[in-house]
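Below sits the subject:

***
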Amino acid sequence: MDVSKLTLSGQKNLKDISNGKKIYENFMEMTKDPIKHNEEFLLKLLEDNKDTVYGKKYDFANIKSIKEFQSKVPVTEYDDYIEYILPMAMNGTSELITAYNVDHYCKSSGTLGNPKKIPFSVNAQESMQDCTNSYLKALVADKIGLNWIDSKTMSLIELSIETLESGATYGAISAKFMLQFKDYIKELFTSPFEAFFPENDTNTRYLHARFGLMEKNVGMVQCAFYNFFLEILRYIESDWELLVNDIEKGTIHETIKMSNKVRESLMEKIEPEPNRAAELREIFKEGFDNHIVKKIWPSLAILAGTGTGGFASYAKKIKEKYTGDDVKFLYTGLNASEGNFSVPYDLETQDSIFMPNNVFYEFRPVESEDLTSLLTLDQLKVGEEYEIIITNISGFYRYRMQDIIRISGMFNNMPKMEFLYRLNQTVNLAGEKTTEIVLRNTLNRTEKEFNFDLIEFSMYPDSDCSPPTYKFLIEALNIPEGVKKEDIRQFIQDDLSSSNPSFGDKIKKGILGEIELDYLFEETYLLYRDMMIMKGTSSAQLKPPRVIVNESQRKFFFALIDNEL
């Protein structure tokens, strides 16, 4: 391949693949003896951090085995680190919980909506870039070759970032990474800077869709969660005439919300493209039911992002209607504000494998409340479910992630995992313990039973009414004429009772009340998304609230109930 003939995007992709190949090969080798590499990682981490305040408190210097680590260091949650994080973030105080340089804090919403500051060391940033960029591209190249590399990426993220008193940055880590490419965004990505770092009230769906459609040579779509790509496709389907007309004339329609400053900046970046507009118009006139994505972007090879767990239904809808099997899905593993915890080992597989040289892992079987006898990578059983507990390279030790996973199989000697749900999304009004995955599966079966398009749902566990009650809110399109809300409500209750017999038993005994169901106005979840981004939440961390856990969420969604349906 003649590198000199590649575009800047192609050259960057090729460089990333070259760097990632070594990481990929090394990682495959580690799958043969993961616990050996995981223990080596832990002991080096403890040695590096033995002189920190936390390291001295728990005698890191004299810990020489996993067993000693587990006996000396307590299991922790975020509140255990607040006394350290505040002086780190505000004053730049070092050597408290980590010896590594921390110049960034991830913004993550707490249970009550109070933003957390999650330390993210420079070491962790390098690791994340290796795993989310170089490794993934090397994996793709290994599986499908290099035909896609000389193309742009449609990156569907919206970010914000600020600077703390200490000089460290605060926001999504992807915002810090994106700023590295600020001068080259036009050459690497389809969307403009104004879409990645939007001002309030900017219609970012329009920007991602319009600039994405302008570019025919797109090889990869990246999104934090698959639901946003589905939103963009639905937006194109409903508003394609406006989008194509603007592309044809080099205009931005007056109804598209944005400030005059943003509009002026964008107008400098566009010009009339009548040929591309004509091409798109012919494609869209044929309809959207026959895997239209490859007609729009013939070079598109990969859709990368989170499409598992609560986002699996979005992946299914995208594949069934818009992409078919011609675009390969790359499910990017378990990621959080605390770091990367698993990576894919193949395309089109929803499970992933652990990273023994980046994180030390422990596991609590879900049927046990015992935190004194946690398991390690070599002790997991296929088919079992566990809470994952991590020690990372940013100062968190034996930290409860609140994530539940299932071991789905083995890759060499490495357990394969699939994410199931978060503990704080488990409903327990009367001892019934209904998980988010049970709620999600029930609503997916409801959608199929009544043949409507479920956009999203939320459930409010109302403990103030007597008896306590599950109150479901759904946003749905194309509900068939003649289908009554009561029929849907009863199906949800019956299916949930079957899936969780404890719930059904408590309904029969009157310990829990009959469930309630209301419809939400169309685009409620888009409005919620826009509101949260306006408040500074990164789209990379923004998930639909399947279980309403705080008062601000409750007020928002209950104010948007459509009482006429």
User: Anything to note?
Assistant: The chain has 20 helices and 19 strands. The CA atoms of residues 38 and 114 lie 33 Å apart.
